[in-house]
Amino acid sequence: MLTAFARAFRTPDLRKKLLFTLFIIVVFRLGSIIPTPNVNVKVLKETADAAKESNNLYGLVDLFSGGALLKLSIFALGIMPYITASIILQLLTVVIPRLEALKKEGQAGTTKITQYTRYLTIGLAILQATGIVAMASTGQLFSGVSGSDDILYETGLFPIITMVICMVAGTSVIMWLGELITDRGVGNGMSLLIFTQVVAVFPAQFWSIYKTQNGFVFAVVLLVGLAIMAGVVFVEQAQRRIPVQYAKRMVGRRMYGGTSTYIPLKVNQAGIIPIIFASSLLYLPILATQLWPNTKWLQKIQPYLQQDNPWHMAIFFVFIIFFTYFYVAITFNPTEVADNMKKYGGFIPGIRPGRPTAEYLDFVLTRITTPGALYLGLVSLIPMVAFALLNATQDFPFGGASILIIVGVGLDTVKQIESQLQQRNYEGFLR
Question: Where exactly are the transmembrane stretches of this chain (predicted)?
């Protein structure tokens, strides 16, 4: 990997793309530390630190914003509104025929769906920013922490609207920065910004472990983290290759087909989406306990909502397995794949085209999704087990969605750099 980066910096045009990507990332991080108007930065920092010590949930929520959410910066919402909008549009594509037709139109349809995603992102950003600012103005953002009522200088209508506009504008700028990286940089812009948000909190997490624990525990955490990362890399690269043979056919005076290829079915076909779904669903009762703290039945279930509670871990694990199967069933349609193969003269050796091929693909996908779902569930439980058994803080850096994002985006970016290097190295043979 290091060799690939060294060769990339020796290539002039690729070096420009890499430097441009780094510049955008620096701009993105600068926006994450600039507070919105009307925020008392000193009181906010003290209150946020106290909240993270009393409730691990704040550290988990802050992870996906790169530390910007609990600072109420102009980039406080981060890339999450765009991710949520993308997931919603992807799910609606299966339900709404108009969106499904747009998806099949190629580049023009994809551009239209991207435009809808942007509009939905702005709408979600307005809702989230309004909710966060309203909770900050009423002292409910850090419920139960002293000083949470003094985060904002003023709680009038105009200051609140100004803060909401700044946060929504920040989300729009983040979308633009991500598209700039995709068009003029290296890798997928949105994925790299998510990667940046997750990695940004790692130095503080390591330093917290080093201060609160001794050097031996810090070294053990590093070794365990490297082992976890190696295991995640192994599983993320694992795939079942279904061989596909295309028969020869004449189109006009040309002959097509006669080639062999394969359908790669990854063990982790769903990515980190099931973890996001499960976390969001479990966050709803926690949010309800903060909004209505005097409700009796919410007070009874509140102990079970703590991350170190065994019931919380079990429910979280079951939700991840369920959403893994749910998301894979939505995103991969065996019947559609089988019909496309039949249309272009493709077949799986030993399997008849059409319905038998669809049933075979569904059988293989169901079997391969089982270890993928268990793997996602176990990786997601690593931080919770650390909380419960090792008495770790919310700063435990390895496991969960963070390690999956780091490995996934890192592998994808390195592959894109290597592919661009191969194009330039093989240029002389293609002439």
Answer: 18-35, 72-96, 116-136, 156-178, 190-210, 216-235, 270-291, 311-332, 373-390
- Is the CB of residue 375 less than 8 Å from the CB of residue 391? no
- Residue 338 burial (CB count, 10 A): 24
* Helix/strand/coil (H/E/C) assignment for every residue in 89-112: HHHHHHHCHHHHHHHHCCHHHHHH
- The 8-class DSSP code of residue 391 comes to -
Domains detected in the chain: 1-200 (1.10.3370.10), 201-398 (1.10.3370.10)
Identify which of 319, 313, 308 has the alpha carbon closest to the alpha carbon of residue 280: 319
What is the rounded CA–CA span in Å between residue 305 and residue 283?
9
Kindly provide the b/e burial profile for residues 375-398, where b requires at least 16 CB atoms within 10 angstroms of the residue's own CB: bbbebbbbbbbbbbeeebbbbbbb
| CA separation for the pair 100, 102 (Å, rounded) | 5
State the DSSP string of 227-289. HHHHHHHHHHH-EEEEEEEE--EEETTEEE---EEEEEEETTTTTTHHHHHHHHHHHHHHHHH
Please tell me the distance from the alpha carbon of residue 408 to that of residue 271, in angstroms, as a whole number: 8
User: How much is the pTM?
Assistant: 0.77
Q: Are 195 and 181 in contact (CB under 8 A)?
A: no
Asked if residues 37 and 206 have their Cβ atoms less than 8 Å apart, the reply is no
Model confidence pLDDT, tens digit, residues 83-142: 888 888 888 887 888 888 888 777 788 888 889 999 999 998 998 888 888 878 877 776
pLDDT digits (tens, 9 = 90+) for 341-357: 888 778 888 888 888 89
How large is the greatest C-alpha to C-alpha distance in the chain, in angstroms? 80
